[in-house]
Amino acid sequence: RTIVIIPARGGSKRLHKKNIHPFKGKPLIGYTIDACKECAFIDDVFVSSDDEEILNISAELGAKGLQRPANLADDSTPKIVAIRQAANALEVGKLERDDIVIVAQANSPQITSLQLKEAFDLMVQHNLWEVMSTDTNGVQNAAFRLVRYHALFNEFLSAHCGFVIAPNVDVHTLEDLQLLE
Fold first, then answer.
1. What are the backbone dihedrals phi and psi of residue 83, each rounded to the nearest 5 degrees, phi first?
2. Positive or negative: CA dihedral 35, 37, 39, 41
3. For the chain, how are helix, strand and coil distributed in percent, rounded to 5?
4. Rounded to whole angstroms, how far apart are CA atoms 162 and 133?
5. pLDDT, tens digit, for every residue of 79-136?
6. What is the greatest pairwise CA distance in the chain?
7. How many angstroms separate the CA atoms of 39 and 114, rounded?
8. Which residues, in sequence order, are CB contacts of 40 under 8 Å at separation 6+?
9. pTM greater than the 0.85 cutoff
10. Do 10 and 73 touch, CB atoms closer than 8 A?
């Protein structure tokens, strides 16, 4: 199986309600959900959030909601902890060792189905454990990451990883939105 988990907590500080902030007539998270839904290799799209409004909007856009516990939605909780919790949630818990979990950012509206397909193909072709998006300089930009289910729980760095160039902007401020426009 291949699933997507979009982490989208409600407590954004720099841009209030950033994940559902309107951009060109659509909530930011809508671009990510749409790109994922266009991929034939993706079985399910989940949104992990502590915020009911985000979960409701995501459901309207075709994603399945995963309620995130409040203690995993503060500024100090590493994203991987929230992703691990979501991957083990009841609805998702049927994942097996080599299933693929795509972590896609709600605030990266430039993610495309073609970028995700390129990363998926690279992972499958080379039997990788992880594939990460980078900017044109090879610097990871966190727009998306594909991870084998078992690698989500590693306590060590993997040598089984690859990278795809996806020069996407993560939106954190109004200035970032202006840059995209």
1. -65, -45
2. positive
3. 35, 25, 45
4. 9
5. 889 999 999 885 566 888 899 999 999 999 999 999 999 999 999 999 999 999 999 9
6. 42
7. 8
8. none
9. yes
10. yes
